[in-house]
Amino acid sequence: MSSRTTESPLSDFDIFNLRVGIFQTAVSFLFFGVYCTLFIVTILIFMTGKLSLSKAQAGSFAVTILALFFSTTSLVLQIITNLPPSSLFQLDPSNRKHYNLIIVLSIMDRLNYLLSDGIVTWRAWILCPSNPLVKLAMCICMILSCAGTFLDTGLTAKKFLRNPENYGAKTSILLMVVPLLVTNLAATSVIVYKMIWHYRNMRKFSTDKTHISALKVQKFLSLLIQSGLVYAIIWTIYTVLTLLNGRESLVFQAFASGMPLISAIYPLFIIIIAASQNQRSNHRQLEGTEAEETGTLGLVSGSAIRQ
């Protein structure tokens, strides 16, 4: 009997995309589970009244809802675009709608990046409400972040529609990452400056009644700085690995799946930090320190540590 050779209905490129898609979906579900857990905690914080109702709090809540919409939409689109060709719901790769969904997925991911940068910028803005230089710097950084992100989205979509196998140059990712990273570092630098300024004033004017409250402010600012640095380090690792391996590598695909959700988790983490500090201040409240303790919630309640 003559041996028969069965050919796979999928090309090597399709098989590679299927494997990458499975890996991407696994990473996305991992971070989406973490995000949903923190989102539920954040909703409980708002419902239990641990953060006083204010315009700033309403803005924070709106950002969390918007990030949830972007993250959920991104996950659903990723599942659809990564389904095998034999699936009933999979669009034909030759169909333009398939590529359009991938482009929409890319846009959803990048909107999460901008939301996270917006939170970072707002955080620095309200800590220095009377400093025009800080406001100008934050506005410029945010404009550059938006410009770089949308320009990268447009160029990536153009290349993808011309040739889906063309991932572009490795350095093309810098167009989006550099403005986002600079914005985060600039905002974190503002908080470092504010922490130093507050520490000097604490040493000069602190009394026994206000010392504990002042230490809480320092701890809160320290947590904001640490979270900002961790977020910047993640972006740096993402960029370095992409430059070394390229966008077609499995390493890039893993980070590309996780980064939008990490960006969505970041604002929730900031809100939880603020609520934690608020709860502790309620347990150890001292007479005459209410105004200072309210300042520790400047990011969410809108009462900043004003200069």
From TrEMBL:
Superkingdom, taxonomy of origin: Eukaryota
Signal peptide: none
Protein name per the record: G-protein coupled receptors family 1 profile domain-containing protein
Transmembrane segments: 20-46, 58-81, 132-151, 171-196, 217-238, 250-275
Record keywords: Membrane, Transmembrane, Transmembrane helix
